[in-house]
């Protein structure tokens, strides 16, 4: 480590420095080259990316332009459709305006006509009120005249019906010599030897043996209307056992052509009430009234069949016994009482009336029945009640101040349909055979 050692060391250091510099320059050169290469690569990559982006951008622009064109075309179509729709709307609006003008003219004419029609209706309503009042007056007058006509025929009428011959009977041996349209019947006495000697009886109407059930009811039918006009009516069959009372009142139930007064009267009652349903309200009930009858009940009925069922119940309870005149003679009276409550729907007037349909027990003399014991007692009660009924009819026909309704339960029950403005029809039945002369 002498003095010459220091320069040498410095030289060595300088050489190292130069070598280092040289190395550094070379590295820097390489670095620059690499950097340059990297830059070019980067530029190439960027160019490629730019190119890709450019292509993608162009594609996007193309898609946007395509979409824009499609939307433009779609909007153009829609605009055209809207324009067409607007045109149609304008046309429709013009048509509507035209129609509205036409309707306004039509409505104006119709309103004018409506005013005229309303005036016509007002006048018609006023006339209708007058016509209605006149019609009501005419209806009431017609009702009064109709029932006055019935009263002129007699509030108490007596009809006579001759029973037809029964199979096996001698039609030549008859006591009925003649019947006439004017109500006469000639009865001959079979015990007298003098020929052409007759007793003449006069009735309101006489039905010969050939008269049908329908012909008999035709004369009775007007009284049924009177019941629905507020007048009580009593129809009863009177005569000896076997003279045809039950046949006249009930008839066989096999066919309508042979129906009796009961069935036909009830049918007529319901038919008329139905035909008047717009003017009158009717309530029809069946039982007895005015007198307390044990176990009697009031039944509301709506048809003939309802009443017939009640009648059948009554017939089953009717007393029947054997006598010399009939093996199954009715030993009691059959009484059907129909209550009618009516109300005029137009003026509110109300009324109540009764229809009595009665099949009386046989009226023959006690000794002719051959009855004894209970049957004799029954016959005596029957004849007593029939005698009381006869007294009432006679008193009413003579217009007596006192009518003996309370002399029997029968006349007490019938009081509502006997006397006053009530109408009574007595159907006397005659048997034509000689054996019945005394009863006839």
TrEMBL record:
<keyword id="KW-0067">ATP-binding</keyword>
<dbReference type="GO" id="GO:0005874">
    <property type="term" value="C:microtubule"/>
</dbReference>
<dbReference type="InterPro" id="IPR027640">
    <property type="entry name" value="Kinesin-like_fam"/>
</dbReference>
<dbReference type="InterPro" id="IPR027417">
    <property type="entry name" value="P-loop_NTPase"/>
</dbReference>
<keyword id="KW-0547">Nucleotide-binding</keyword>
<keyword id="KW-0493">Microtubule</keyword>
<dbReference type="GO" id="GO:0008017">
    <property type="term" value="F:microtubule binding"/>
</dbReference>
<protein>
    <recommendedName>
        <fullName>Kinesin motor domain-containing protein</fullName>
    </recommendedName>
</protein>
<feature type="binding site">
    <location>
        <begin position="239"/>
        <end position="246"/>
    </location>
    <ligand>
        <name>ATP</name>
    </ligand>
</feature>
<keyword id="KW-0505">Motor protein</keyword>
<keyword id="KW-0175">Coiled coil</keyword>
<dbReference type="GO" id="GO:0005524">
    <property type="term" value="F:ATP binding"/>
</dbReference>
<feature type="domain" description="Kinesin motor">
    <location>
        <begin position="155"/>
        <end position="440"/>
    </location>
</feature>
<feature type="coiled-coil region">
    <location>
        <begin position="54"/>
        <end position="81"/>
    </location>
</feature>
<dbReference type="InterPro" id="IPR036961">
    <property type="entry name" value="Kinesin_motor_dom_sf"/>
</dbReference>
<dbReference type="InterPro" id="IPR001752">
    <property type="entry name" value="Kinesin_motor_dom"/>
</dbReference>
<dbReference type="Pfam" id="PF00225">
    <property type="entry name" value="Kinesin"/>
</dbReference>
<dbReference type="GO" id="GO:0007018">
    <property type="term" value="P:microtubule-based movement"/>
</dbReference>
<dbReference type="GO" id="GO:0003777">
    <property type="term" value="F:microtubule motor activity"/>
</dbReference>
<comment type="similarity">
    <text>Belongs to the TRAFAC class myosin-kinesin ATPase superfamily. Kinesin family.</text>
</comment>
